[in-house]
């Protein structure tokens, strides 16, 4: 095996081996009418789920603060 082939074999992960041991995968098909079909997939780790939750909470708090300050200014 040449050096180039060895490097290519190392860079391509096997589809059977997950990149993270606790990885969560999801695959879905969405049909809209008779002629439109959308396919999608997602992967996330538990740390990613926690990060998304923290980011969502921070944005919700910020938007709530902005909404309350707009109401106070309007009076």
Structure report:
By secondary structure, this protein is α+β, with helices and mostly antiparallel strands. It has 2 helices and 2 strands. A two-stranded antiparallel sheet has the order 1-2. A hairpin with a 3-residue loop joins strand 1 and strand 2 (36-44). The protein is flat. The termini are far apart. The relative contact order is 0.09. The model has no long low-confidence stretch (mean pLDDT 82).
Topology:
Layout: H1 3-11, E1 24-32, E2 36-44, H2 46-74
Antiparallel strand pairs: 1-2
Overview in brief:
With 75 residues, the protein is an alpha+beta fold. It has helices at residues 3-11, 46-74, and strands spanning 24-32, 36-44.
Strand runs, count: 2
So what's the overall shape?
flat
Assembly classification: single chain
Strands in their spatial order, largest beta sheet: 1-2
Poorly predicted tracts of residues: none
Distance between the termini: 76 Å
Amount of beta strand = 15-25%
Question: How many distinct helices?
Answer: 2
As a whole number of angstroms, the C-alpha radius of gyration is: 22 Å
Secondary-structure-derived class: alpha+beta
Mean pLDDT: 82
Largest sheet properties: 2 strands, antiparallel
The percent of residues in helical segments reads 40-55%
Helix and strand string, N-terminal first? HEEH
Keywords:
75 residues; alpha+beta; two-stranded antiparallel ribbon; 2 helices
